[in-house]
Design a protein that fits this description.
With 549 residues, this protein is an alpha+beta fold.
Length: 549
């Protein structure tokens, strides 16, 4: 073409995609130089290298022609004529179609490998606790596995925060990517939430779309992500590190942490916040304060902590809106009463833990044996179904087909029933394992509490709260008046019942596998026209008997 090397300026782009013209690095420089008049010819191997997008390609080429730069392609002929431009546009449209087709085939091939071959697609870094073998599959890293188990135990049993876990990990083991020896909350949270650690690797959960004209800090095209429908997910089983029950407890703990993150603040702390529930309308009690006595010397008014049903002061107005009949509860008094009941477990934990664990063991062994029997029968039925289906296809008489078809229908019905029974047994076994882990939580927290008490140190609010959260799912408060819902009735009785582990520990016997009813903690009387429950209205705190409901 008659050009000297000194006249040639190269704009290398390597393997960068030609899909988006705005995210290219060198092409904008070329367009700027052409606009400045310093380029007379633009030489390219093929029109596709400008852009795979027809619109982008036409814009760039028109800019070049407008500024007097001639287009030259080495791998194809191009004439600056109506016919040449038509051919150029046709080739560009085909290139755009080919790009879409390549993407579709690539995605389809990946999905087929995951679905049929259970192959894990390449990832930049394996999750913490795993390594990639020579085939790209995930295998457990024994050293990191120990720290994954520690993270779950610290979070579930010791109730440590993400910050406290990160401080314990610092200096012992580095995060997977090795970019820093410091752990962050995101990395730890990912370990505590990812289903990879219970042996479930999901592919095709997220859909990505490039953000046109934007790049990441690393210079790659920026993408935005959205979740696909669950039916489109593909799951590959890998070796688990954490038990499913421990993982579920961690998720339950996360929900509690989100719910209770404002339980305590620098000014007021509420031991039973989000746990007290109105037995009349079902609303959670609010934690609030009322004004108390006024100190004339300091000019300050004391605040008294209370729990109250929000429907006692509804935000909707009108004659059809009824106020809840629940009463306001003095926080100090009800917290003291509940905590004294908790101390009952602290003083003699073995009695309750042995009952909690021991009586479930014999029953769970029977359930395991029952599950094994169901599985054995299921295998027999599946084999019989397989034989019946083969006979059905070999049958020559219509009468034989109908008879075999009836057998197939019966086999499928029996198989469905057996699978349901096996699922029910497994649910009971999982529940038993969850209760064992819960008792481990209680033992750990009780030991920690007893150490505090023996040292003469006041028990921190956080420890009290953790124990209460383990023991109680909810505490139900119900008002019973002689005069019905008349607040001026001569006598008022208030029932306090509980749902959760405390309920199980307080019962004389445990019928394992059957959901227990809420346990009545105490019934006490409340004098009429009193603004609140007073300490004198509470029963003798030494009475430790918990009558069954």
């Amino acid at each position: 073409m008659g050009f000297f090397d000194s006249n040639i300026r190269i704009y290398p782009e390597g393997a960068r995609s030609g899909e988006d013209i705005d995210t290219r690095i060198e092409l904008p420089k070329l367009r700027e130089d052409v606009a400045n008049g310093s380029i007379s010819h633009v030489i390219c191997t093929h029109p596709d290298r400008f852009s795979r997008d027809l619109t982008d390609k036409l814009i760039a080429c028109r800019e070049f022609e407008k500024n007097g730069a001639k287009l030259v392609f080495t791998d194809t002929e191009y004439e600056n004529s109506p016919e040449g431009k038509l051919f150029f546009n046709i080739m560009s449209a085909i290139a755009e179609y080919e790009l879409a087709l390549i993407k579709k085939r690539t995605v389809r091939g990946r999905l087929a490998k995951v679905r049929d071959q259970k192959k894990i697609m390449p990832m930049r870094v394996a999750p913490f606790g795993y390594d990639k073998d020579e085939n790209g599959q995930l295998v457990i890293n024994d050293t990191e596995r120990q720290y994954v188990l520690m993270i779950y135990e610290w979070y579930v049993l010791e109730r440590l925060t993400l910050r406290q876990i990160g401080e314990r990990l610092y200096g012992k083991v580095m995060p997977k990517r090795g970019e820093s020896k410091n752990w962050n909350a995101t990395s730890i949270s990912r370990i505590l939430t990812s289903e990879i650690y219970i042996g479930k690797y999901y592919y095709n959960r997220r859909a990505s779309q490039k953000v046109r004209g934007e790049l990441t800090k690393g210079g790659n095209p920026k993408k935005k992500y959205s979740m696909r429908e669950e039916k489109d997910w593909l799951m590959v089983e890998i070796d688990p590190i954490v038990d499913i029950e421990m993982w579920k407890l961690a998720q339950k703990q996360r929900v509690q942490n989100d719910t209770n993150k404002h339980v305590g603040n620098t000014k007021y702390e509420y031991l039973l916040k989000s746990l007290l529930k109105c037995g009349h309308c079902g609303r959670r009690f609010d934690a609030t304060t009322y004004s108390g006595s006024h100190n004339r010397d300091t000019g300050e008014t004391t605040k008294i902590r209370h729990y109250r049903c929000p429907n006692t002061v509804p935000r909707k107005y009108g004659p059809e809106i009824k106020k809840c009949v629940a009463v306001s509860l003095n926080a100090e008094q009800i917290e003291g009463y509940i905590w004294n009941r908790v101390i009952q477990i602290i003083t003699d934990p073995d009695k309750f833990i042995n009952k909690f664990r021991g009586q479930g063991d014999e029953a769970i062994l029977a359930i395991v044996a029952q599950k094994e029997l169901f599985e054995k029968n299921l295998t027999i039925k599946l084999n019989a179904l397989d034989k019946a289906e083969k006979k059905y296809y070999e049958a020559q008489l219509e009468a034989d087909e109908k008879r075999i078809e009836k057998h197939i229908k019966d086999y499928k019905k029996d198989i469905a029933l057996l699978e349901q029974e096996i699922e029910n047994c497994q649910a009971k076994i999982d529940a038993h394992r969850m209760e064992e882990l819960t008792s481990d939580q209680i033992i750990y927290m009780v030991q920690k509490l007893r150490e505090q008490i023996s040292d003469g140190v006041e028990v921190p609010f956080e420890i009290k709260r953790n124990i209460v959260e383990i023991l109680f799912e909810e505490i139900i408060v119900t008002v019973n008046r002689d005069g019905g819902d008349d607040p001026t009735s001569s006598e008022t009785k208030i029932d306090i019942t509980s749902v959760g582990v405390f309920d199980k520990l307080s019962q004389d016997g445990i019928n394992y596998g059957v959901c227990s009813q809420p346990q009545k903690i105490r019934q006490y009387r409340r004098r009429p026209r009193r603004p609140d429950l007073h300490w004198n209205d509470w029963p003798d705190q030494s009475d430790r008997e918990l009558p069954a409901r």
